[in-house]
Records
---
Amino acid sequence: MSAAGTARRSSRPRKQVDYDEEKLCADAGVLGAAAVDYQQYSQLLLQADSDNSACLTATAGEVTAEALLASGFKQPVLLQPVGDSAAATAAALGMRLPPDFSLQLLAEQLGPQHRVPVIDVTSQEALPHMSLGQWVSYMTSADRASQPLLNVLSLSLANTQLEQQVSAPELVYQLDLATQAWPQQQQQQQGSTSAAAALAPPPCKRPRSVLLYTLCSPGGCYTDWHVDFGGSAVWYHMLQGVKVFLVAPPSRHNLACFEAWAGGSGQARRWLGSSLHGCAKVLLAAGSTMLLPPGWPHAVVTLQDSVAVGGNFLTTCHLGQHLVVWRLEQRLRVKPSCQYPGFRLLMWQCARYMAARLQATAAAAAAAAAAAADSSSSSSSSSSSSRSSSSSRERQQVKAAAWSSSSRAS
């Protein structure tokens, strides 16, 4: 989802930025790095062939976490809004969402000095952080067209007061490995002498959450091909504007092409989409929600000024895919700060979580088998008793008949 959360390695030079400078080199971005022909790439994305069958479309509330897990969550899911009501759509998704969510609300709630991570679209590089006040001024500026094209893709709402007002769809929390597998009572294990506590890992700080971000993109923005960190799945809910995604399944061929492109020196001069197979376009308009499965390379064009909320999550049914992308990141030497936070630790927690689930399942199966055996034994005993009673009645009837016959004979 975010440029900070991609498996794309960069060795481009950086420099300090004057956000008020007006003159930029024609062949370089704000940082002086190689320029991406984002306008041409945007057109290539919009004109690309698309496999429309690759995306599942439904209405918000019609898709459940259980259904996604049962199907393996192998294709993108586009959830259309419920009528024209943003509140009804949020309710159907199980989301918390202020009715007036906007850039202005962000500034009011987070404060004008809140740091905002910014991307220079021309170079596709991260810039030094701007303040939220500067970003609002940029987005509302009358002469924005004469300024560098900037993009905000990963403004985290974690540990802010908005975290209590905004949430991911309920099914995302049900799928999210960090939510499901991270010990909820870990702090209570300190000082315990029980055998279970002795086997548990020492308490440790939970890694930063990547489940809730705000994205704010001016019309015309282009985000080049990337795979989200750790091969994580992504959810997006559009509040305003329109974005078009071109997504590709994480086949062996596609990931090999991505790795060769991301590890090369000519990223800016090459459109990766022409090498990928099975691409699909997804148009995300206001009120729509998309769930992108783990490991899918994707590029994005913003057609109109857009505001969205979204985030990243790992799932139990894609552990193999997460590890494939994690190894790819190691080969590309992606900086730890740009990888999924606490990935290795979460994998260990996942192992404990899965082991506990297997033990619980085995115990439940054993209990059910024992109950079935008891029921069968009881049924067999009852049947034997019934047969014995029946035989006794038959003997009595035979004796009575014989006595009656003897009496008549006498």
---
Amino acid sequence: MEEISRASGSVGLSYGAHSNLCINQLVRNGTTAQKQKYLPKVVYAKTDIVAHSERMTAFIIEKGMPGFSMAQKLDKLGMRGSDTCELVFENCFVPEENVLGQEGKGKVADMYT
């Protein structure tokens, strides 16, 4: 990651977040079916950062799920090569097979990323 970041901080940031925050969740907590389905094409996001996280649950949201959309790309001051946008959830139903690990144990899973 250091060599990638030396050439481009934006690419290094994207690679680090994707590999360390997202991929590790699936590798450590995903079922075999989840790993086979999602590891080739994943993205990581966190819910409300100011909310308490004692009973946080990690889950998979698929592009195109009813109630899920992406807002416009943010125009940032730096790291423009690492796209960032808001993820919008409006009555988005998450099926049980999309839960990573155990319900309410996402904080523990997040600590291992």
---
Amino acid sequence: MANPVISDVRYGDQCQNGWAGQLGHESRLAGFSKCRIVLVDTQHNLAGQLGHESRLARHAAFCLKTSCVLLQDTLHFAVRLVAFCFKTRCVLLQDILHFASRLDAFCFKARCVLLQDSLRFASNLVAFCFKARCILLQDTLRFASRHLAFYLKILAICLMVALRFVYF
């Protein structure tokens, strides 16, 4: 899968009044929560209105580095390559750890994650867990078990294969 190109990000008043359109023949816009932030993916057509009224069916997209993958309907684009939002709780993936809620914390540069009570690990792998669904991220993404908790100090889980989704 080729890396997507994020060609434009718009903020605030630029989309507050239902701003939408196309920026080139392949560009589509994605808005997040009343269009406070607009993200443009020019290659994969993953974008769509992600505001209150519409979603990408049961999937939405997010970016890690420049790789876009599909996840559950509650996960949305927020800011170009640096943020995502789980329901109303937003997490910034920047050079330092930003806390946007007590349940969601994500450290991208240090590659450590602190999310909810079921997550118990710190390792070089990028991993996170939303509620009962655990996900391991390195260069790839895979849905693990709904009931699986990661204990990477005890058990090493490495996914070095192409992007795949496993639903249980």
